[in-house]
Design a protein that fits this description.
By secondary structure, the chain is mainly α. It contains 9 helices and 2 strands. The protein has one domain: Four Helix Bundle (Hemerythrin (Met), subunit A) (Up-down Bundle), CATH 1.20.120.1760.
Length: about 240
């Protein structure tokens, strides 16, 4: 029985360790110019990050150690890793020093977001601020497509500088984002919706990942706008025939 109990706490941390390995390797391949592989590793890391939380909740094995270990791994995979991938484009266009500043701003925002989650946002139903896996996937999808489409490094650097600032802003913001832990686990309709979105990703490949990731980012401002009373009344008038 003791071995089973230990396994309950060990298994989620093994997934977290796999997440950390993906982040470590994404840095290595990012600075080596293997942008395609580095971006795929970030994507795998995001999947492992989702699984480790899922397993911990299923086994009721959530611990303070697991929370801190998960955040440290997330900082590497979703903060440092994507920053180094973006740095490849900055140094390739000879604006490495300036690009390093944008990468640091993004990485710092991810660190602040993770620290805030551990100290004040635990137990919330929704996410407050853009979750680090979502921001990393959004950045990785842009890097992958810029690399695959052979976009000139100068233009790529401008695009990535803007993306890094935008993602940093959303990460430290107080905007509410839906959580897969609670918001997407109930109805049959939502299951069909998830299946349809996954099919879209499979069909469109990285374009599908880009579309979904930035749609999720825009959901934060959309939720905030929905809280404005005048806007809510306008939406009710538009969709409720009795008010015509």
């Amino acid at each position: 029985m003791k071995s089973i109990s230990k396994a309950k706490f060990l298994i989620p941390n093994l997934f977290t360790l796999g997440n950390l390995l993906c982040g470590y390797l994404s840095i290595f391949y990012g600075v080596s110019g293997r942008i395609d592989l580095a971006c795929r590793l970030i994507l795998v890391g995001a999947f492992l990050d989702f699984v480790d939380g899922l397993v911990a909740r299923r086994f009721d094995s959530q611990t303070r150690f697991g929370l801190e270990f998960d955040s440290l791994a997330d900082l590497i995979t979703f903060g440092v890793g994507p920053s180094f991938v973006a740095m490849y484009f900055f140094y390739s266009s000879n604006v490495g020093n300036v690009g390093a500043l944008f990468g640091f701003i993004y990485c710092s925002a991810v660190a602040i977001r993770l620290a805030r989650f551990n100290t004040s946002d635990t137990g919330l139903i929704h996410f407050r601020g853009l979750p680090s896996p979502a921001s990393a996937i959004a950045l990785a999808s842009v890097c992958y497509l810029l690399f695959e489409q052979n976009v000139p490094f100068t233009l790529s650097s401008v695009i990535l500088a803007l993306i890094l600032i935008i993602l940093a802003f959303f990460s430290v913001s107080r905007l509410v984002f839906l959580s897969l832990k609670t918001d997407l686990k109930v109805s049959l309709f939502q299951k069909f919706l998830i299946a349809a979105l996954l099919a879209l990703v499979v069909y469109l490949d990285w374009w599908g990942i880009l579309i979904l990731s930035y749609a999720y980012i825009l959901s934060g401002p959309a939720i905030q706008l929905g809280k404005i009373p005048s806007l809510r009344r306008l939406v009710n008038i538009f969709f409720n025939r009795r008010n015509f």
